[in-house]
Amino acid sequence: MAYQPPQGTRALSRNQALQLLFQAEGVKRPVRRVLEDEYLVTNGPASDYAQELACLCEDHLAQIDPVLAAYSERWALSRMHSVDRNILRLALYELLFEESVEDSVVINEAVKMAHDFGGDESYSFVNGILGRIVRDRAQGIDILRKGQEEVASEASEAEDAWAGPEAADAALADDASAEAADSDISEA
């Protein structure tokens, strides 16, 4: 079945925002820079809402990406397909920062985009992650804090792994120095 662009104004704008985020990531430029240059979107040019949504989503990536990392068990963001990652980012931006949009609408739109643009399993992957986030939030879990804690934990683990060989060498050197000092004292 051929791709059919969404009919609703907001649905089309989300679709265009996704395309802007995807293009910005692909050319390694900020969304605002992509908007200044040439870009392609379905039923373009991009609506004002699509541009605003893409820019605001990008502005909040420091808060969004840690949450996605915390909820995408065994999937580093860098390993995710770019389309899936940007669908999740856009949806999470709306879940966290756009109170006027219902959670069910955000999830349904994200799943639809994943079905239209992603791989065979993208829609279930996107639905699963967003479903866990919404469930946790409904149970009173601060998902922004959970994301930050995940980042802190990963940084600590990376620091421990990085310091491992160096710390072991330093400990061996300290032991050798202590032994040498002990032998100097006993000889005296």
Account of the protein in words:
There is one protein chain. The protein has 188 residues and is mainly α. It is 75% helix and 0% strand. The chain contains 8 helices and no strands. Mean pLDDT is 83; it is low at 1-5. Residues 161-180 have a biased composition (Low complexity). Belongs to the NusB family. Residues 13-135 form the NusB/RsmB/TIM44 domain. Residues 152-188 are annotated as: Disordered.
> Average pLDDT, to the nearest integer?
83
Radius of gyration: 23 Å
Enumerate the spans where pLDDT stays under 50 for 5 or more consecutive residues. 1-5
Please work out how many helical segments DSSP would assign.
8
Pfam families: NusB (PF01029)
Domain NusB/RsmB/TIM44: 13-135
Keywords: RNA-binding, Transcription, Transcription antitermination, Transcription regulation
Protein name: Transcription antitermination protein NusB
